[in-house]
Design brief:
mainly alpha
Length: 89
């Protein structure tokens, strides 16, 4: 290796390290999805908060209740014991 090749090699090393750091940071930045139970609890709290706001109207309230009810159904489906025949379809 001559001097230029050594300089190129050494100067490229940190770039690779930076790419590895960025990849690690992107993995850390991945959003953690709440469970159905957590989503229901947060939506229920949001519903209580929203009902007290001046901007609360029937249409928006119904939308929020619909989303909360969806989380409740998903939460309930996890609590229900499945039959063995449900797995054989």
């Amino acid at each position: 290796m001559n001097g230029e090749e050594i300089v190129d090699f050494v100067s490229k090393k940190p770039a690779d390290n930076e790419e590895e750091q960025q990849a690690a940071e992107e993995e850390e930045e991945r959003t953690v999805v709440p469970t159905h139970r957590e989503a229901f609890a947060h939506l229920d709290a949001a519903l209580l908060w929203f009902e007290e706001q001046e901007e609360c109207d029937g249409r928006r309230l119904l939308s929020l209740k619909s989303i909360r009810d969806l989380a409740a159904r998903k939460r309930q489906s996890l609590l229900k014991q499945m039959l063995i025949t449900d797995y054989i379809k």
